[in-house]
Write a structure and sequence with these properties.
Elements: E1 8-12, H1 17-28, E2 32-37, H2 45-49, E3 53-57, H3 63-77, E4 82-85, H4 101-133, E5 136-140, H5 153-173, E6 178-184, E7 190-191, E8 202-203, H6 209-212, H7 225-232, E9 244-247
Parallel strand pairs: 1-2, 1-4, 2-3, 4-5, 5-6, 6-9
Antiparallel strand pairs: 7-8
Amino acid sequence: MSSLSDQVIVFTGAGAGIGRSVVSRYINEGARVVAVDISSAVESLRDEFGDKVIPLVADVSTWEGNLAAANAATEAWGKIDVFVGNAGITDAARPLEDIPGDRLGAAFGELFGVNVLAPMLGVRACLDELIKSQGNVILTGSYASSNAGGGGALYTASKHAVLGLVKQLAYELAPDVRVNGVAPGVAPTRLKGTGSLGQAAADSVLDGTREALPLQEVSGVDAYNEVFTLLASRVGTAAMTGTMVSVDSGLSIRGIGKPGGRVRRDGDN
């Protein structure tokens, strides 16, 4: 039996990158997925997976978008076992001093609306069904959930908030619903910027990133599939709740002189 056989999952931020890769893995593990994204690119999942997926174009920073996702799952399959809040945007590492004061409120509202409010709305929309199914929640954090320098002030604050949300919801919903998170480091994907700051989508991997990582490799988006699948399993992580799993290629333990103890640099003997 596949590890997610007969599971019904609502998954936001499913149109590209890590989200799309994990959705594909979930379906191959036996799950049925309502795949939500603000981009119509999510609709192509139906061509690949047929009636095992319901693509939904929606704004997850709104109650209506999240309620539509929850209703789609229950109307099609009668339950919800897992909610994955993966949608997120970036501030392109914009320092606070570079954001005009009269634009800060709008930028805060936009970024926190997607990165923090959206997962709260998603959990709330799915909550009654999650309690009935004794299910679980997975939220996507970041290296920036626990460290500075992984984004600008807005992004870092929002991802710290996601870590707090994982812990608080794990407390509030125990013992009925488990709540955990995944904190990626650097993934080869394009991140949507904050529109109120005039930012478009941008590549998340900058020149020199690979050499800065202790593992000396920028892993593909499929490198996160196993962790998300394990957390969604009713068996593999049955004793885990309130945990943010770091999957950051060692970024959080990077050294000052060189990224890892056995990393060779030009000029090393």
